[in-house]
Each structure stands twice: as structure tokens, then as C-alpha cells.
Amino acid sequence: MTETFQFKLLATDGKARRGEVSTPRGTIRTPAFMPVGTVGTVKAMYLDQVRDLGADIILGNTYHLMLRPGPERVARLGGLHNFIRWERPILTDSGGFQVMSLSSLRKLNEQGVTFKSHVDGALYHMSPERSIEIQGLLDSDIQMQLDECVALPAEPGEIERAMEMSIRWAERCKVAFGNQPGKAMFGIVQGGDIPKLRERSALALKELDLKGYAVGGLAVGEPQEVMLDMLDVTCPVLPAEKPRYLMGVGTPDDILKSVAHGIDMFDCVMPTRSGRHGLAFTRYGRINLRNARHAEDMRPLDEQSSCPAARDYSRAYLHHLIRSNESLGGMLLSWNNLAYYQELMAGIRNAIEKGRYADFMAETQDGWQRGDLPPV
């Protein structure tokens, strides 16, 4: 444990990085995948399970927690860690993405964004300062700047305007964050799919000398190649001694390739959302338990997995649960999926340490490509 927020680079293999983020609430092994606990819960999971699967950190959402139960109430109840019984680090996003994507009515200007809640229609105002204030009330360990995330495709002028305003908002967030020992504020690189804007954004944020940097506005529908091209532009500009976080990513293949481009941290709702809809991630690739072919298949998802959901339950039973809309089906598949993601991250870290990351990538992708063999 440490009383300060620190990042230490332990090994590299090409552009892939193995490191550790030290915080007063624990160490985050990188590359790291952060399960998404939007409203203080990783959907369909006990947080004890999430911890036991190897998650060093989870993500909370400022927008949703602001609407309910409210940041002031969470603060009165001892902060988000105490409220949800999670002792390890928590990263909170700024709420900006949800404001832009969920609110049906919003008005944005230099001061911030005014919007109607998607829950009850109540009017709220989110400024850079208020976003940081809310994250402080939640008592998160890593806080994100408020930014404007433009959906792609978009006009270059619109992308540039939003990127420049996001830089100004980052400056205001840094002032609002002040000096919080043991905690960090990350800036968010924007710039859409335009390399020069990505580079300008990264350079401007680097000048602010923040404790970490995120890459935002990607994995929003653009081809994977575009996302990786933007990482090739962005990562070399960012300081090597600071952690790099690719927001909202993603599929196992996205993660494998993004690590190879220099990313340290990831988050995504995909493991739990897919689980609730009957899709399992495994070393064989994706397995859709809704398909009739599984109705009489007594094999588990993966007999070699350390996760009981993958190892001890038959595909026939999982198929039955999903087709019957039983809650247990989504719970078991979410458990399996988060276990697979954490096993993947452990394999990534081990491969970088041993200098064989390219081989690990090829072996993992080959397993997905071969797919799941039919029952004998």
C-alpha cells in the first residue's frame, strides 16, 4: 500500500506495457480491465465475486449516481466504497458521455451542459467543476475530466470545436480537483478520427501534467482499424511514465490489439451485457447459448476454467436458463464472461513479462479462430 498515487512501468514488449498503479486503496496491475459498476453494482454479480475473479478496480458512473441515489447522499453514507462494500480502487467517469448519449434534451455551451434526466425529466446542470465535485463526493480514486464526446461520423469542424472545448474543460477540472493526496485526475484525449486533432489534444493535455491520460471518443461504431490508427497517433505523444486508459473498450480482440499499441487500462459493459443476453466469451471464442445446438450438450463452457460458471454447469442447462428468461442464466454467463476477461488480462500481463506478447496474441486469436469443436 502507498499513501500516494504512482505508476510504475515494470516491463515492455514492443509497445505493450506491464505496469502497476499504486493507490492507498490497493495496487492495480496493468494492463487492467475494469468491470463497469454503473450505479454501484456490476450487473448480475456480487462484488465479492468480482473481487475474487481478480479485478483490482471497478468503474462507477457519475451521471447515473448523480441521478440516484445522489452524490450528497452517497457522501453522507460514507462514500461509494463504503456504500457498495468495495475496498479496492474505483474510477468514476465524468458523466459527459451519458449526458451526450442518453439525455433527450440538452443545451451545451462553454460553461457546461444543461440536460433533462432520462429517469424523471428533472433538469440538471453539469459543469467541469460540478463533475469533479460529484466525483469527490463519491470519493473515487481516479476521477475523469468532463469532456464532450462527439459521435462519429461527424464534420471535421464539429470534431475540432468539441476537442478544443474539452481541453479548456480539462484545465478547469484540474483547478477544481486541486491537490488530493492518493488520488488522480485523468485527462481525456479527443479528436475523433482526425490524426492531427488527436495529436493536438494529446499535446495540450500533456502540458497539464496530469497523473494519467485517457483516450476517449473511440469504439463508438468506427472500424477497429481507425481506432488503432488513432492510438498510433496518440500514445507516442503521451508521457511513458503515466498510465493510459482506452475508454469503453471493448471486445477481447480490441483489448489484445490495443495493448499491443500501448494501452494500460480498459473498461466495458460488454462482458455483463452479453452475459445477460446469452452470449459467453471463452478461449474458443463467443458461444451463443440461445442456439438450439446447445439444448442437449452436457459439456461445460470450458472444463479447464477456474470459474465454476464455466466449469461446472452444462451448456444444456445454460441454454435452458437463457431460453426460459431465468435470471440465473444471465448471472452465470456474466460470471463466466468476467472470469474470461480477467484470465485474458492475467495472460496478457504474464506474456509481456516474458517477452512473448506477439506469440500470446497469435495463440489466443488462433483459439478463437478454431472455435468450439462440436460434441463427439
Short description:
InterPro entries: ArchSynthase1/Queuine_TRR, TGT, TGT-like_sf, tRNA_ribo_trans-like. The protein is an alpha/beta fold.
What would you say this structure looks like, in words?
The chain is of the alpha/beta class. The chain folds into 2 domains: 6-268, TIM Barrel (Alpha-Beta Barrel); 277-363, no CATH class. It contains 15 helices and 16 strands. It has helices at residues 47-52, 62-67, 71-76, 80-84, 96-102, 128-138, 156-177, 195-207, 224-234, 252-260, 270-276, 308-311, 315-323, 327-353, 357-370, and strands at 6-13, 16-23, 26-30, 32-35, 58-61, 90-93, 106-109, 112-116, 123-126, 142-144, 184-189, 212-215, 244-246, 265-268, 279-282, 285-288. The strands form 4 sheets. It has an 8-stranded parallel β-sheet. Strands 1-2-3 form a 3-stranded antiparallel β-sheet. A hairpin with a 6-residue loop joins strand 8 and strand 9. Helix 6 (128-138) crosses helix 7 (156-177). The chain starts with 5 loop residues before the first strand and ends in a 6-residue tail after the last helix. The mean pLDDT is 95.
Q: State Rg.
A: 20 Å
Helix-strand category = alpha/beta
Helix content: 40-55%
Give me the CATH architecture of the largest domain, please.
Answer: Alpha-Beta Barrel
- What is the straight-line distance between the termini? 50 Å
Query: Class of the largest domain, according to the CATH hierarchy?
Result: Alpha Beta
Helix run count: 15
Strand order of the largest sheet: 4-14-13-12-11-10-6-5
Biggest β-sheet strands, sense, barrel: 8 strands, parallel
Query: Low-confidence runs (pLDDT<50, min 5 residues)?
Result: none
CATH H-tier superfamily of the largest domain = Queuine tRNA-ribosyltransferase-like
The coarse overall form would be globular
* Count of the separate structural domains: 2
Mean pLDDT: 95
- What CATH calls the topology of the largest domain is TIM Barrel
Q: What fraction strand?
A: 15-25%
Q: Care to count the β-strands? A: 16
